Amino acid sequence: MRIAVLSDLHSNLVALDAVLADLGSVDAVWVLGDIVGYGPEPDGVVERLVEIGAVAVAGNHDAAAVGAADVGWFNPDARAAIEWTQRRMAPRTRDWLAALPMTLAEPPAALVHGSLREPLWEYITSGAEARPNLRLLAGQRLTLGLHGHTHVPVLWRLTGEELELLRVEDGTRIALDERVVLANPGSVGQPRDGDPRASYLLYDTDRAELVWHRVGYDVGATQSAMRRAGLPAWLVERLAVGH
Ligand code: ZN
């Protein structure tokens, strides 16, 4: 099976459509949360995911948008965008988001937004978070932890006691074996690794391989929609620099 793994779409429909056009035919689309928040088209993004039959888990922004998580943890811009989303999204969008699970097991893979031990909120940014989460995964007899939340595409791998961090870029291929890994596809809707192009991952179960991809999209179109919506200026500007 060829499976597209997408994360942190953040209501950016122009970016999502560019990714869907780029990835071609796949057998499944897995979404690692933060479907809404920051961007201008929460209804459009959820409609598209429903249309393509995507399987998804909730992110912290999705939980906050439906009132299941406290917006007090968000910075002022993120909070303003969540409050805008709450006012604007259709009831069916809200219902779909509210029904998302926090974790999904698709052996040998696990799907979460932040991390296995703290699905909504933990950022895996260093070995201090990666190592215990890799052990937790191994304890569940799973080998592939798929997570987002940092908006930065990377791979963590445990070989015995040795922990490796692999930076990934467009076209990076990683062969999967018996070792336990955490893979982050990067962000579709708001990349933060200095590359404004949308980021996603293809997981080929027959080849046991992960391949990262980047795809340019019309950033200006999303920015114009955000300005029209009155979303915070910094959220508009950061899309152009990928930060
Ligand atoms: Zn996010």
Task: Describe what you observe in this structure.
This protein is 33% helix and 22% strand. It has a domain at 2-102 and 165-179 and 187-238: Metallo-dependent phosphatases (Purple Acid Phosphatase, chain A, domain 2, 4-Layer Sandwich), CATH 3.60.21. It is globular and about 50 Å long. The two termini are 33 Å apart. The chain has 243 residues and is an alpha/beta fold. The structure holds zinc ion. Zinc ion binds at residues 8, 34, 59, 61, 149, 151.
Compose a concise summary of this entry.
With about 240 residues, the protein is α/β, with parallel strands linked by helices. It has eight helices and twelve strands. The protein is globular and about 50 Å long.
Give the oligomeric state.
single chain
Tell me the CATH superfamily of the domain at 2-102 and 165-179 and 187-238: Metallo-dependent phosphatases
- The CATH class of the domain at 2-102 and 165-179 and 187-238, by name, is Alpha Beta
Q: Tell me the β content.
A: 15-25%
Could you name the ranges where pLDDT drops below 50 across 5 or more consecutive residues?
none
Instruction: Name every ligand kind in the structure.
Output: zinc ion
Using the alpha-carbon principal axes, give the shape.
globular
Number of strands: 12
Largest sheet: 6 strands, mixed
Query: SSE string, helix = H, strand = E?
Result: EHEHEHHHEEHEEEEEEEHH
Residue-averaged pLDDT, rounded? 97
CATH architectural label of the domain at 2-102 and 165-179 and 187-238: 4-Layer Sandwich
Compute the gyration radius: what is it?
17 Å
Tally of separate helices: 8
